[in-house]
Amino acid sequence: MNLEKVALAILFVSSFFIFWLASGGNSSDKIVLIERVLDGDTLQMSGGGKIRLLGLNTPESGMFFYEEAKNFTKSLTENQNLVLESSELDKYGRELGYVFLRKELVNEVIIENGFAHMYYYGMDKYYDRLALAEKKAREKQLGIWKHSENFGCIKLIEFVYLDLTEEDKEKLSLENSCDETLFITVKDDATHVYKEKILAGGIFEKETQNIWNDNGDSIYIWDGDGLVFFYRYS
Question: What are the residues facing 231 on neighbouring strands?
């Protein structure tokens, strides 16, 4: 890259950040160039370092809509200069934060288009925006919220999630009320994923420990065609 191109790049970034501050951005925010998208909610920055997008979870590898979510985030962010509003580093050394593309909150856009569900414990200034985005996606059955033809087949029989001591067991009991065997993926708000099979008219039971949060969580169940069951408690 010659000196003229370097100067133009510096001028562009400087002008972009001045515009960001004038529009109400924080001086602690920073401009980052996204080199690569690792999955739907994790970005690789140019020069090293990763960003884990806050407030959401996209599908894990091998799950329904994983590739679609990754490609959508890639189309928004890869090779783009974004403004990063970072809060802290997680245990993997990734920056936890919100990213903006021309004043558009990317975290919100991903959720609103159905490529992620909310992932919150506690609330921050963006909680209501992301909650509304998820509500819109659910109502329109976009992305991960698309109903399978088997939606409604799964009935929640028993759900025990309070584990007051280390010995306490959580319990999830489901019934398949349809006349065909279902091959399903069961997931919580975090990243606990189970591949299961429920026979037609059969009962599925699973005991776990320290999976379902006492103060709020969700049960998501998909088959290969879409969402089969959803339940959230707080």
Answer: 219
End-to-end CA distance of the chain: 54
The CATH number assigned to the domain with range 3-144 reads 2.40.50.90
Q: Are strands 217-223 and 226-233 parallel, antiparallel or unpaired?
A: antiparallel
Q: Name the percent of the chain lying above pLDDT 70.
A: 88
The residues spanned by each domain of the chain are: 3-144, 147-233
Structure tokens given for 35: 């080199």
Q: Nearest CA to 118 among 128, 106, 131?
A: 131
164-194 pLDDT, tens digit each: 777 789 999 999 999 999 999 999 999 999 9
Query: Which residue shows structure tokens 């709020």?
Result: 216
Q: Which fold has domain 147-233?
A: Immunoglobulin-like (2.60.40)
Write the secondary structure of 86-119 as one string of H (helix), E (strand) and C (coil). EEEECCCCCEEEEEEECCEEHHHHHHHCCCCEEE
Contact (Cβ atoms closer than 8 angstroms) between residue 193 and residue 186: yes
